[in-house]
Design brief:
The structure is a homodimer.
Chain A: H1 2-6, H2 16-26, E1 30-32, E2 39-41, H3 43-62, E3 66-67, E4 73-75, H4 76-79, H5 83-89, E5 94-99, E6 102-110, H6 115-125, E7 134-143, E8 157-167, H7 170-190, E9 196-200, E10 212-219, E11 225-235, H8 239-242, E12 245-247, E13 253-255, E14 257-264, H9 266-275, E15 292-296, H10 303-319, E16 324-326, H11 334-343, E17 348-352, H12 354-359, E18 361-366, E19 372-376, H13 380-405, E20 407-409, H14 413-422, E21 426-431, H15 435-445, E22 448-453, E23 474-479
Parallel strand pairs in A: 3-7, 15-16, 15-17, 20-21
Antiparallel strand pairs in A: 1-2, 4-6, 5-6, 7-8, 8-14, 9-10, 9-22, 10-11, 11-14, 12-13, 17-18, 18-19, 21-23, 22-23
Helix pairs in contact in A: 3-7
């Protein structure tokens, strides 16, 4: 029965990209909208995003940040104030030129990110050292017009959060940059069960306008990397053109030091590609829109008995905070429902029929491996949360193990190119720090340096650059990326 | 001391509009942005909006709705599909004509509301009666370019939610329209302590594209009305041009019946103008960003004692779910802090000094009327929630009483015009149902029919239209509105 349903999805081995599109569309997480490059995030996908958002938001607040909201538009003159920034974003920016039939005197860009709009506000808000630090986050939609799009991973409009902080000292801003990267790492691992590599981006890959960019990089099931979040140390690159100054305790005027950091709806795609299998999605319990689905199994004569018991179990689990659904639809047979909820990736399924009631137990099935257990009815409110916690742990461990297996080391560009033809993944290699090597690798293999990891980037004795053959400055992580 | 601080705000009696701007700016709820007509919602204002949003969202989910997200843009051809709709919104719509340096083949409108985008998706999603009802809500930013703006009440970009539902039958859609209006009423009264009048909009005032529009109308302290939320029965006005059809159980193809409904960040302005006084904001406890502020009062020798006790109280209140802040800043004196938090409208203030500790009590002061009570330390965790609940109730009652006092009845246009010169408010009057009367009243007094209330709209015996003198069809509510 499960097999029959699975036929609707392309298998991962056959065509991973097609599997991804199939599973997103068929589980109704999202679909393509009438506007090129934009998607409709459907309720099931949005519920996952809401849970990711809430998990992140809780952490931002616990680290002293508050939310605010800034305009969607920025005047052209603002965007141009930071030279690298405008160069990086201008080609992808949509321009508003008219309202109704009236032309605007200055055309307006739709925000690709809000540094310039927010810096204009900060220049007004910040006057004294007493006004610092400013620790603000914004949840918003942004637009970067993309030529090639992929649901959740790369769309012309997407939802994200962008933290924008201003500090009195460089040290404090650098500390904030690192703190938020760590919040991202911890949240991705704890909540999304998605292990990531933390490190610094190369000059070539850093954010337009930043002094330094740090990233968390996930490795998906197909061996492609996903830049899952970035944290930027902006130095005074924006403070100076926007005039964000404060009177310090020593009575001198100084520019603030800034950071910005963001994660987006692409995390939803990351979750799908980290855990999903040929039967569909697998939702990590902590962020699963539905954690447990109850399937009552009955015939005419046992219907009332079973449905009432299923409703009681549902209410009991709800009462202890489990996100649970009872699928009592009569037009579908249990097998059909099992498959549907498996495709939707619900972590645990509880089956209950008249015989189970007689025996005083239920059948509990894990989505991950279809492991089956008979759970005494009286123990459900303990065993279900336990099973959810164990599944969360198992998913993270499985992803970690896979990441290790997909990570190898190469010494030369030839080796990298050959390896990539067989199997994608993370590739450690020596790098002399030159842009030439980055370009040569990209040109031949489409791989880029994902980051210079915090751990393991010290070159081993005698390590050479994989292209130039010069002594390696860093040991870095190459991969093809979404 | 309180007086001194208040001097910074224009008094309500002197100039209510200026008081409103003063209080929004000085409490840092919002300010004007660099883009004309758009505002920066600052953290304090956003925190209030977050609480309103969460209170609404909880109710939407409890009534079976789910959230989703649709694109910011719509192709010009889509906006034009419903004739009245495009006519109503086209003059305020910003147009995107270019991306980077490339002109678009079809220009894109930025959503003023999402009926057309969402209907295009529903036409794909809905095939069978089994797909119905669709009960979706979206939290999003929308843009309606405004000539005259006012912080929160009328800005070119604003945040809102828009529910969009599709149903099998007309009855079901009508029931949904009413259900959501009632959700709005209940939420505004319970959470915002803002009483509203529920009723049907006239033909002239209804939503562009709706069959019928219903509204909740608040009456603010200055006697101006605020349309605080609307719920539209769309009939099949969108279903037909967008082709949203389903195969019904009887095997015939039918068009769906639709509703849409929305509230926005203007509710923040409503809260400010419903409760605020000459000392500043008054936040209803249920949605107050901070419900209780603790002010430790100490000298050098009592500092440790008092600060430690204040921190303990803070932790205790937090533990029972009270949103509490301890203001331990040493650079400001207690009086300064009292005034600052009064202006910010924090419902309760707790003062604690060495003598209070000795006596085993704290001083609790209500923002509303500065009522002062000595509360035994041991009773705090009971008395504080009680005091918050009582204040919430008192605020609603005070607003209700004020609304009654500001509501009168007039028989003729002359009477209405004279009354409005003295004092604004709600004015009951007879209406013959004609657009001519509406136009004549608007022309002379700037007042409009806010709605035809569900209660009290039956004309009394012999009641006449206030302009035409013809027999009244309805007894309706006139007011000047924001």
């Amino acid at each position: 029965m499960a097999k029959e349903f699975v036929k609707e999805l392309t298998s991962q081995a056959e065509d991973f990209s097609q599997w991804y599109i199939d599973v997103i569309l068929k589980t109704q997480m999202a679909d393509y909208s009438c506007v090129r490059g934009c998607m409709n995030i459907r309720p099931y996908g949005y519920a996952l995003w809401e849970n990711i958002r809430d998990a992140m938001d809780k952490r931002f607040k616990a680290t002293g940040h508050v939310n605010a909201y800034f305009p969607l538009f920025m005047p052209e003159s603002f965007l141009k104030k930071e030279a690298e920034h405008v160069e990086g974003f201008a080609p992808e920016v949509p321009w508003v030129t008219h309202v109704g039939n009236e032309p605007l005197t200055e055309r307006l860009a739709i925000r690709p990110t809000s540094e310039t709009i927010i810096c204009a506000a900060y220049a007004e808000w910040i006057q004294s050292y007493r006004d610092l630090p400013v620790l603000i986050n914004q949840w918003a939609n942004v637009v970067r017009w993309e030529k090639r799009t992929r649901l959740f991973l790369r769309t012309s409009e997407f939802l994200w959060q962008e933290g924008h902080t201003a500090h009195r000292t460089e040290d404090e801003a650098r500390e904030e940059t690192m703190k938020m990267l760590e919040v991202y790492r911890e949240c991705c691992e704890t909540e999304l069960a998605m292990p990531v590599m933390c490190g610094r981006k190369t000059e070539k890959e850093k954010f337009a306008g930043a002094v330094e960019t740090y990233s968390i990089e996930a490795l998906l099931k197909d061996g492609n990397a996903l830049q899952a979040g970035t944290s930027h140390f902006l130095g005074q690159n924006f403070a100076k053109p926007f005039g964000i100054k404060f009177l310090d305790e020593d009575n001198t005027e100084k520019f603030v030091w800034q950071t910005s950091w963001g994660v987006s709806t692409r995390l939803v795609g990351g979750v799908v590609m980290t855990h999903g299998d040929d039967s569909g999605l697998i939702m990590p319990p902590r962020i699963a829109p539905t954690q447990v689905v109850i399937i009552p199994v009955f015939k005419d004569d046992s219907k009332t008995l079973v449905l009432e018991e299923a409703a009681r179990i549902c209410a009991e689990l709800e009462a202890i905070g489990v996100r649970v659904k009872c699928d009592a639809r009569e037009e579908f047979r249990p097998g059909y429902k099992y498959n549907e909820w498996e495709m939707k990736g619900v972590p645990l399924r509880v089956e209950i029929g008249p015989k189970d009631i007689e025996k005083g137990h239920v059948v509990m099935v894990r989505r991950l491996d279809r492991e089956k257990a008979f759970v005494p009815r009286a123990e459900l409110s303990v065993r279900i949360p336990e099973a959810l916690a164990r599944l969360q742990k198992d998913l993270l461990e499985a992803a970690r193990k896979r990441q290790v297996e997909q990570t190898t080391e190469v010494a030369t560009l030839d080796e990298l190119a050959e390896a990539l033809e067989k199997k994608r993944g993370f590739f450690w290699a020596g790098w002399d720090g030159s842009a030439e090597t980055e370009a040569a690798v990209k040109e031949r293999t489409k791989a880029s340096i994902r980051n210079i990891p915090f751990e393991g980037s010290e070159p081993t004795a005698g390590m050479l650059d994989l292209v130039s053959g010069k002594p390696a400055k860093h040991r870095v992580l190459f991969a093809r990326a979404y």
